[in-house]
Every structure is written in C-alpha cells, then in structure tokens.
Amino acid sequence: MMVSLWAMSAENLDTGANITRYSMYKRLRACLLELDIQPNALLAVGNSANMMYKIGLEAQTVQVANYPDVSIVDLPYPDESFDIVISDQVLEHVEGDPFTAVDECHRVLKKGGYVIHTTCFINPVHGAPDDYWRFTPNALKLLHQNFETVEELGGWGNKDVWKFVDEGIRGIPVPHKAWHPLNKLATKNDPLWPIVTWIIAKK
Question: What's the Cα-to-Cα distance from 72 to each of 5, 26, 62, 173, 188, rounded to whole Å?
Fold first, then answer.
C-alpha cells in the first residue's frame, strides 16, 4: 500500500534514477562537472551507454561493447583507443578476474583518459547473465592501483532501503523534491551499508 502511494505521489514530478542509483548518478554528475571531462571517444561496456545521459556525459563517438559479443576481460580494441571507458553495474558480473577486466580498460585508455565504474556491494544475487563479485570502495581502489590517480571513490546505501525494495519500490524513479519520502530514502547514506559503489580513475 505504501509503495503504491509513493508511486502515485511521484507522478507529475521531475524525477531522476531509481532508488539504488539516484545518489550515485547525482554524485558522478557533480564530479564530471568539476573535472570538466570532454571526451572524443567513449567506450561503454556491458549495456552502459544509458548511464552517459544520466550523469551528463557526452562524447563525439560512442563505442558500445555489450556482452556476450564483447567481454570486458578481453576487449577487441587497440591500445589507447578511448578517452573514457564506462561500465554501469558490470564488474559484479565479470566471469573471470576483475583485475584483468580493469587492466583491459586501462590498456584501451589514452594517457590522461578516465574510467568510470559503478558496481554493487550489498545487493541480492542477480543474474545478467550471472553474478560473481561484490566490491567495497576500497576494493575498487585496489583494482585500479595501476591508474595514475583516483579522482572519486564512493558508495551509497542504508539498511532502510531493503525494507521497501521487496515491496516493489526499486523501479520507481525518485523525485528531485527533498520533501518526498522516496528522495529522503534515496539520499540517506550510511557508509557501513553501501548498496552501490563507484570510482573515477585517471590513467
């Protein structure tokens, strides 16, 4: 009942992403504005192209690399081909060594290029097509130890979210209004309970 009321109250309001991505996308958008990243060539791995628009990222050319045609652990592109590589909730699904996956992203990046990875930590097992890994922010930092700098490292989540996700709240876009209960839940963060984690690293 509460979920349907929240969904109805969100109608006709300006909304963003769903509850598990709302704060993450908002933070990534802010970081990209600060870094003023303007890539020419972008590689979007694993059905991640939609994240570009969610975080305000634009590129002159976009190469889409979706599994199973392309695997992140063996990217079929020459060294230093892209200004930026992005993946949205992909690393947990890597059937192989996640260090190899990140090293492949590093390889195809031009010097001075950026990688943006989002993934999950506290999350139910979910297939896409299968589910193998979980990453804390520090785990992401370790994976990117060969990069020159980590520009952004973060996580978002809280225990209260899962009380409502099972009731169907996960798919409802979050209103940008701070008074809305979905917005309050989507912006409440407990660093000890990260549902999603992310990193921006520079080569």
Answer: 41, 26, 16, 29, 32
124's CB contacts (< 8 A; 6+ apart) are none
Measure the CA–CA gap between 72 and 64, rounded to whole angstroms.
Answer: 12
Q: Which helix (H) or strand (E) holds 22?
A: helix 22-35
Among left, alpha and beta (phi > 0; psi -120 to 50; other), residue 192 is: alpha
CB proximity list for 69: less than 8 A, separation 6 or greater: none
User: Identity (one letter) of the amino acid at 173?
Assistant: P
Per the rule left: phi > 0, alpha: psi between -120 and 50, beta: everything else, 201 is: beta
For 113-123, b where at least 16 C-beta lie within 10 A, e where not — what string? bbbbbbbbbbb
Which pLDDT score, from 0 to 100, does residue 16 have? 93
pLDDT score, position 10: 72
Structure tokens at 110: 């031009």
User: What global pTM score does this model have?
Assistant: 0.95
Tell me which amino acid residue 2 is: M
Check whether the bond before 194 is cis (ω within 30° of 0).
no
- Nearest to residue 203, comparing CAs of 98, 118, 84, 52? 84
Q: Are strands 61-65 and 109-120 parallel, antiparallel or unpaired?
A: unpaired
pLDDT category of residue 3 using cuts at 50, 70 and 90:
low
Cis peptide before 39 (omega within 30 of 0): no
